[in-house]
Amino acid sequence: MSAIATPEPAAGAAQARKPRKRVPYVRQQKPTEGRRVKKSILLTIVMAIFVIYSVVPLIWLIVNATKDQGDLFSSFGLWFGSDFNLFQNIADTLTYRNGIFVQWFGNTLLYVVVGAGGATLLATLAGYGLAKFNFPGRRAVFAVVLGAVAVPGTALAVPTFLMFSQLGLTNTPWAVILPSLISPFGLYLIWTYAVDAVPTEILEAARMDGASEFRTFFTISLRLLSPGIVTVLLFAVVATWNNYFLPLIMLSEPTWYPLTVGLSQWSSQATGVAAQPIYNLVITGALLTIVPIVVAFLFLQRYWQSGLSAGSVKQ
Asked: Which structural domains are found in the chain, ordered by start?
C-alpha cells in the first residue's frame, strides 16, 4: 500500500499564521494646521497683552483708593498700604469743600440724562426717517452725516464757544447740553440698523390697516429698533460722561462743573504756591466716577451685543 504524501503548507500560509506587529499610526500634520496653531498662540498672546493693558490700571485705581496720602508715595503701587482707608477716603471725597463732589455728580447726571437722552431720541427719529422714507436730497443728507462723523468734536469746540458766547449761553448748563444733543454717529448707526431691522412689509401692512405714521413708529418700529437704540444710548452716555474739553472751555463756575473737570481741578491743587495735594481724594473720586458707567454696561450688555450683531445674518 503506497504511502499518501501530505502536502507541505505553503509559505504564504505559514507567514499568515505569524502574528503581525502593529505599527503605531502617526498622523501627519498638515502645513495649514501648523500655521493655525501658531496663529492661535499669537492671537492668545495679543489678547493677553490687551487684557493686562486694560485691567492693570483698574486694579491700580482700586488698590490705591484704599491708601491715605502718605501710603500713596511710600508703598508699592499695585499692593495695599499699611492701613485700609477706602471708606474714610470715600467719606472725605463726598464731604470735601461742603460736598462739591456730590454737586459735580449731579451735574454730570443732568448732562447725561438730558444731553445723551436727547441725542439718542433725535438720532432715533432722524435715522428712522432717513431709512424708511424717500425724499429729495436724501443722498446729500447722507454725505453730510458721513462728513460730520469724520470731524472730531475737539475741532468744533472753539467755534461752538464763540457762538455760545455771543448768545450769552456760556457758563450755563445749556452750553454743555445743547452740543451733546447732536450725535452724527448715533444717527448713522440707527439709519443703517433700521434698514434691515424694520421690514418695509410690516410698515405697509400697518398703513393699510389705517395706522398713522406716529402710531406705527411708537407701537411697531420702536420695539424693533430697541437693540440699536440701546447701543446708541450707551455710546452717547459714555461720550457725555467722559466729556472734558467742552465743559472746560464753556464753564468757569465750579458749581456747574462735571466730574471730569472737577477732578482735574482737584488734581491741579498739588502745584503752585499754595499747593494742597489731595491725591487720595482724586483717586477715590475717579473710582466713584467709573462705577455708574460699569453698572450701565453690565445692565445693558445683552442689548448692546444684540444690537451689534443684528443684521449680520441674512434671514
From this structure: 34-87 (no CATH), 96-309 (1.10.3720.10)
